[in-house]
Write a structure and sequence with these properties.
It is a single chain. The chain is mainly α and about 210 residues long. The protein is built from twelve helices and no strands. Helix 5 packs antiparallel against helix 6 and helix 10 packs antiparallel against helix 11. The longest helix is centred in the middle third of the chain and has 18 residues. The N and C termini lie far apart (about 45 Å). The model has no long low-confidence stretch (mean pLDDT about 95).
Length: about 210
């Protein structure tokens, strides 16, 4: 690849605990390439699943980032069953950066477009044995601000306050920290009234003076 950088690739691979190969594209470069491609004619929506799954099989991690960008770029064409493809993204080659990228660009927007799917899909994720799906259920509202369903957020968090999984404790704190930008008093009260892991509590209160 024209913009590949061996040194950056080695650093990115080490940062991701040597789980994935990289071209070594800097974030700005990768995003520029993606946007340039998206501005051209997008593939047929009917071909999205096969393109994404093929990209997901390639070794370099940038292909998975591009796959998420591609799904997001076709948001206006989404049907309710695109959630199957989104779930595929969440449970294959899972790591925090793709799962959180999906929370911003895929799961969050999806449940706004198809709110009736929350009780069917997000509830299932929250009860799943897969902690990446659990994390996704807790995190999908992180950009909802005033539209956050605090009862739902509470329910999903409280189901996992006893979890010893770092990525769940972090997700709880992060979701609360994001909502504290909108309603710090609610977050402060929630933390006070519920016993959270120290990591979750620290993250939740980071932005509250």
């Amino acid at each position: 690849m024209q913009h590949a950088d061996v040194e950056n690739a080695a650093g990115a691979k080490a940062y991701m605990r040597n789980q994935f190969e990289f071209f070594g594209l800097k974030a700005a470069t990768r995003q520029r390439i993606s946007k340039t491609y998206m501005k051209k004619k997008l593939p047929a929506y009917a071909d999205l699943e096969i393109i994404v799954t093929q990209l997901w099989q390639l070794p370099e991690r940038e292909y998975q980032y591009f796959a998420i960008d591609l799904i997001a770029a076709m948001k206006k064409l989404w049907t309710a069953d695109v959630i199957k493809l989104i779930e595929y993204v969440l449970v294959n080659k899972s790591w925090w950066e793709t799962v959180d990228h999906a929370a911003t660009d895929l799961t969050g927007p999806y449940f706004k477009i198809f709110p009736l799917q929350i009780s069917k899909v997000a509830d299932k994720w929250n009860r799943s044995d897969n902690f990446w799906l659990q994390r996704s259920s807790i995190m999908f509202q992180k950009k909802y601000k005033k539209e956050t369903d605090t009862a739902l957020l509470s329910k999903y968090i409280l189901n996992h306050t006893q979890s010893n999984e770092f990525f769940i404790q972090k997700a709880i704190g992060w979701a609360l920290r994001e909502y504290s930008k909108t309603d710090p008093a609610w977050v402060k009260k929630f933390v006070k009234e519920n016993k959270l892991a120290p990591l979750s509590e620290r993250e939740a209160l980071k932005r509250i003076i």
